Amino acid sequence: MTAEQELVSERDYLDYAHVCLRQSRKQLRELAERARKRPGDELMVEWLEWRADQLRDANESPLFFGRIDGPEPKPCYIGRRYVSDERDEPVVIDWRTDMASRFYRASPSNRMEVTRRRRFGFDGVVLTSFDDEPLTEETADTGLSRLVIAEIERAHYGPMRDIVATIQPDQDEIVRTELASTLIVQGGPGTGKTAVGLHRAAYLLYEHSRLRREGVLVVGPNDTFVRYISRVLPTLGESQVVHSSVDGLVADRGKPVVEEPEVATLKGDARMAEVLRRAVWSGLRLPTEDILVRETSPYVRIPPYVVAELCSDLIDRQVPLARAREHLLERAVSHVRRNLEERGHALTDGEARRLLRAKSLRDLVSTVWPTVTPAQVLFTLLTDADALHRAADGVLTDEEQKALLWPTVPASAGRAKWSPADRFLIDEIAGLMTPPDRYGHVVIDEAQDLSPIQLRAIMRRCAGSATLLGDMAQRTTPWAAGSWAAVAEHLGVATDLVRLTTSFRVPREIIEVANALLPAIADDLPPTVSGRHVPGALATVECEDVLAELVDVLRAAEQHPDSVGIVLDDARFTTVAKHLAKAGVQTGLPHEDGADHKVSLVPVGLAKGLEFDHVVVLEPAEIAAAGATGLRLLYIALTRAISRLTVLHSRPLPQLLASR
Ligand SMILES: Nc1ncnc2c1ncn2[C@@H]1O[C@H](COP(=O)(O)OP(=O)(O)OP(=O)(O)O)[C@@H](O)[C@H]1O
């Protein structure tokens, strides 16, 4: 067959797959209709409808993207979902099956019985080309395939796309790691950490149906980022996964106040968990006199030593407060019941149940554990030096305790203004009272930036394993745990550290410049390599008027379909936005609700995790001004580009860049 005839034959197969998909969907719908008529089959109906929904032929993405020949006699087509014919024979297999893993992992040195890998090129959903990689003894391991490179360099607009067609072997290994493992994935910019984390979530949901009940949570650094990544899982057919920013996990407490980084860092320190634990449990007050239960006839007296006995294991096990209160009430009722029985007055179950509402017993519980809100507990600590000292003695130094106290005391907890770090402390306290709902697996992106207290807040919501993604060289918060070993310690579960080393986003010409910053920002990390070579990808322009030059660069960029991101120091944002508006250049913040701009204006503080075809970094010296954090921000700014990076500056470049 000629290549052209083969293309026609592949297109016919694609049409056939569409027919099969529609047929299967119709069948599932009919089965659901029939099951609906049978009482008691609600679960079956729900499942059939869910399956039918999965087979929607919305023409959003091609039904298959690859094919392997061997070991089966028939070629095997790989797509985002399973399609079968009327005899239930597979037409397209799901990328998450074991069989499909050969598509990702087979190589000339480890062929896994695959003789040929074929990747398909599409224009929208129209099959336009294919690229064959023969896997025979004679072929050598080469770099990225032409179609993989074309996929990476396809103009980027709007939200992040899935990489299911082009997952690389080392990424695939991470995606398919067993559910029980908690992984920390360290990788340089653009090595695919976010993509891998999201595909891992989709894989785990496919492999472990219980995760659909337990839920999967994806946590990102901010709302912009969460909007950017939130389409990936739905395109992979997984629309139930919950996405949240870190701040979005904890209760909103109004407009946050800004506080000194040293105080915020202290509030994010793991030792604060012990201070809060002590504060919560120090609210316990055992009665000093008998409790008289008047709701029974005869009355019952509960002496203090009995209350202490009823509480003792609850205290020892530090049972979450809300549950401890319930247990104490139930135990007090049982005690009263036994006492009455011993005196010849048996209670009916109804009477015992009514006792659960008895005022004297409810008062007893409130005496032992007064009801306070989590915010009230923190308010007391931050406003009452004695209370703080009692909780923090031996845990925090005197200076640290002093630093935590508010200089002016609001009238009440209700009137207090809380900082972002306070919100996590309140959440920690709330967790000691009523643990939050938990998910079966949690994916945490940009995990390098989280404080121990933030890590605890996320892990409190995790009932199973987690996947943490990050790059220590991109650490920009003062409260970050500081190393993956420290992060692992705060997670409280065993972890495996795995690495990704090849950048798919950033061409070699750019990553080599960014790598020059590594000795100053993360000297223990190896330089990132790039799978792509793009001659002329980097242009450094020194000029007197950077804003005039910027307008020229943007005018020239109008000729290309590429997305453009202007990354600049946060403090510059307003001036540049005004200047560009005056010059008639339309810009917007990246991934604003519903809007995908050609030109995004990106304060560097928001740039983490994002990418654009063409990036303009404005005045690197301004971005790098804030010491090591500044250099890390610059490293982030320089590594957002997929195809081109223009560095515009009037001030001298930071030394590490100038020497390149
Ligand atoms: N195997 C792949 N095939 C095609 N594109 C890929 C592959 N892996 C990653 N990419 C692309 O590379 C870009 C960077 O990926 P991603 O954002 O996941 O990297 P990252 O390591 O999280 O980067 P950062 O550290 O900057 O946040 C994305 O456009 C992603 O789709």
Automatic annotation (TrEMBL):
Which GO molecular function annotation, any one, does this entry have? ATP binding
What does UniProt give as GO cellular component? cytosol
A GO BP annotation = recombinational repair
Q: Which UniProt keywords apply?
A: ATP-binding, Helicase, Hydrolase, Nucleotide-binding
Among Pfam families, the record links this protein to: AAA_19, UvrD_C_2
Sites binding ATP sit at: 187-194
Give the matching InterPro entries. DNA_helicase_UvrD/REP (IPR000212), P-loop_NTPase (IPR027417), UvrD-like_ATP-bd (IPR014016), UvrD-like_helicase_C (IPR027785)
According to UniProt, the name of this protein is DNA helicase IV
- Organism in which the protein naturally occurs: Kutzneria kofuensis
